Every structure is written in C-alpha cells, then in structure tokens.
Amino acid sequence: MASRRIRITAGTVAVDAVLNDSPTADLIWKALPLAAAGETWGDEIYFGIPVTAKLDDPRDTVDMGDLAYWPPGSAFCIFFGPTPSSRGREIRPASAVNVFGKVVGDATVFKKVRSGKQVRVERA
What we know:
The chain has one helix at residues 23-31; strands at 4-10, 13-19, 34-37, 39-40, 44-48, 66-70, 75-79, 98-103, 118-123. It is mainly β. The radius of gyration is 13 Å and the shape is globular. The two termini are 16 Å apart.
C-alpha cells in the first residue's frame, strides 16, 4: 500500500505522521478528518475518536513518536515520552494499544500542547 501521510495540528504544533498497514490504521484513515480536545497523561496526548477497533497487535510499551489506538477509550494516542505508568525510560500506555503510525521528525514538540487544546488530524 502507498504511504499514507497525515497531518496532526494542536495549537502552534503541526507535524506529519505516516500510518502503517494495520487494520487499525485502515479504520483511522477512513475516519479522517478528526478533531477533538486532547488530554495529556505524562508525555502522551490522547482523545476519543469515532473508531472501534479490537487489539490486532497489542503492545504494552511503545516507541517515541508512535501513534496508537487505545481500545478501552476508543482513543487516538500520541506518545512523546514517559507516562505515569512508565518504568525507567520506557514509554508505557495505560494498557495494551495498537500502534498504527509514527510521527515524522521530532515528536517532543507535543510537550508544548496543554490539556484541552483542540487536536486536528487530517490527510496530508
């Protein structure tokens, strides 16, 4: 499948990301554009989206810049550092997630985004 790029905008922060070939990525691609107020949890931004996906490749830890779907909250998650569940330097979601994409470039720019800020996700 051709590379599927998306643009994530939150306040002054705008980054591109690339979706992988997972079933979850397919569902999210079809649901775009999305916009919601983001919440923060450590170095993670998450927000509920109108997508229902089952765990297809569950991961208990993720990498810097990973985009993931959290089934219990039907949430789109952007990881850019440790969360309250992390041990040491790992990046650990609240519970298992489906990684469906990755930020292109420096994901730590999301440290500037505060809880409640509108996050928009669209095809790039």
